[in-house]
Amino acid sequence: MLGAHPALPVGAGDDCAVCLLDHSEFDQVFTTDPVIENVHFIKGECPERIGNKAVGRVLSDIAAMGANPQWMLVNVVASPDQSFSELEKIYEGINALCARFGATVIGGDLAQGPCLELHIFGTGLLPSGSALLRSGAQPGDLILITGPLGCSISGKHLDFVPRVEEGIFLRKSNKVNAMMDISDGLATDLRHILKQSGVGAILDSEQIPKNGNLEQALFDGEDFELLFTVPADNVDSLILEWESEFSSSLSVIGEITTDKGILKVQRENELQTLATKAFEHFSGK
Amino acid sequence: MLGAHPALPVGAGDDCAVCLLDHSEFDQVFTTDPVIENVHFIKGECPERIGNKAVGRVLSDIAAMGANPQWMLVNVVASPDQSFSELEKIYEGINALCARFGATVIGGDLAQGPCLELHIFGTGLLPSGSALLRSGAQPGDLILITGPLGCSISGKHLDFVPRVEEGIFLRKSNKVNAMMDISDGLATDLRHILKQSGVGAILDSEQIPKNGNLEQALFDGEDFELLFTVPADNVDSLILEWESEFSSSLSVIGEITTDKGILKVQRENELQTLATKAFEHFSGK
Q: Who contacts A270 (Cβ-Cβ below 8 Å, separation ≥6)?
């Protein structure tokens, strides 16, 4: 039930919506994410970490388009007994991460409600037509990810640093066909790329960098790493450029196939097709 | 704790933030408003009306700058037993009002929480430097409002039509010095203009168009009418132009004075100073 508009080349279904900026050489991307007490964090959690997570999710969506972060608005919902100093510390967490990536909090609202919630809206900018979408993967592309996956519940889901600089670097490389951030788990999120690009994929279980075991790397959520596809001929040079820019890891974990919508995992000499049902079971959703 | 930026001429404290659009003849305005069950509407309320109110509040803020509405993002928080058809009807209410004013819903998110909430983020566009701010009122300006005030709780707070066309008309007239929308009651909101413009005001109780009595017109909230100030010499011609465009009422209700921060009400031959304390008592806040 979302809208269409001639100046809206990418609406719902990607990490951000992409809108044309008239009379400009830039496109503007828009995203929003909620962070809710006892859903996304436990009541009493360190407030700076809550702020980091709330704005980090938004910055990760902007990074997944390859865009430069721009403006942020923050809606806070809080119960009448909410501590003011806790709110200040949440804003400190928000502002620290924004400052790191050139984003600015320009407004928002405060309302009373049953529990603590943050709803952050963010915009980003990038050169016209350069947004990295989920729909661009091609058969033969290799599949790459930043950072290890899994077990983010042990702390990473609150303390992660969104891959903003990496996303901008990858967009500027002109070597990436499709990109998104991993928020719901590798298996679930890769399926979005497969569906929107009309392709399939084979993952090599040995090559997936893991915190924990394979199940956790495939199905845990909230890693906020970048998942992207690159034509095979470009991968070696991209990795060389990456290593001269970043100390963080970059892993080739599989390949895009013509097998529409089919996700397979190579595991100990066996090629298993990963059923959507299996994911639903594993993920507990 | 909100940010500053060279491309942010107006940050927190007005109806919207105003941001420069580089290489363009336009400024972009940003705002966000929450609508929460049992705070802004009663549980079980007609869902189309909830949607109308949620996006109407955002459109009213954009109208109060004199801007043309542009993009909207919608965060929905709902409990696990939320009816899907109710959500569809909320979106129908949102989309109907957006369509009327050329706004487009381009994204959003859905999360689980304790009760139904909508957080809508919106942008608008206007020619560079033309936003109508709270800070522009001058001594000698007359004070005008659209529509009658008070008793919105009887239905208007859900069914109101934001004054988008009127806001654009007033901006284009080049006759308005300061403008905002009335969401917290005339007395409270006029004080924002007084504070930010460094002026005072005298209201004529007889001239305030009322739904209900004077107290209700001064202190009830959620009327979403436009409150603005116009140099006295321009008022007659503005009213003539208004009457050729709109059938809705426009009322001159008072005058801006040099009496910094002082709000007085002329009532039955008596000039009363309205204490902030009195307002707090009346408003029940």
A: none
Q: Are A36 and B113 in contact (CB under 8 A)?
A: yes
CB–CB of A2 and B106 under 8 A? yes
- The structural domains of chain A, with segments of one domain joined by +, span 17-127, 134-283
Structure token digits, residue B43: 């549980």
pLDDT tens across the length of chain A (285 residues): 788 898 999 988 899 999 998 878 999 999 999 999 999 999 999 999 999 999 999 999 999 999 999 999 999 999 999 999 999 999 999 999 999 999 999 999 999 999 999 999 999 999 999 999 999 999 999 999 998 999 999 999 999 999 999 999 999 999 999 999 999 999 999 999 999 999 999 999 999 999 999 999 999 999 999 999 999 999 999 999 999 999 999 999 999 999 999 999 999 889 999 987 544 433 333
Cβ-proximal residues to B233 (8 Å cutoff; 6+ apart), any chain: none
Q: Do B24 and A25 touch (CB under 8 A)?
A: no
Q: Give domain A17-127's CATH number out of 3.40.50.1110, 3.30.1330.10, 3.40.50.1220, 3.30.160.70.
A: 3.30.1330.10
Residues of B in contact with A95 (CB under 8 A): 1, 3
Query: Can you read off the two tokens belonging to residue A178?
Result: 């499709």
Contacts of A33 in chain B (CB under 8 A): 75, 109
B interface mutation test: which of A8, A48, A84, A119 has the most B CBs within 10 A?
Answer: A119
Question: Are B60 and B181 contacting, i.e. CB atoms less than 8 angstroms apart?
Answer: yes
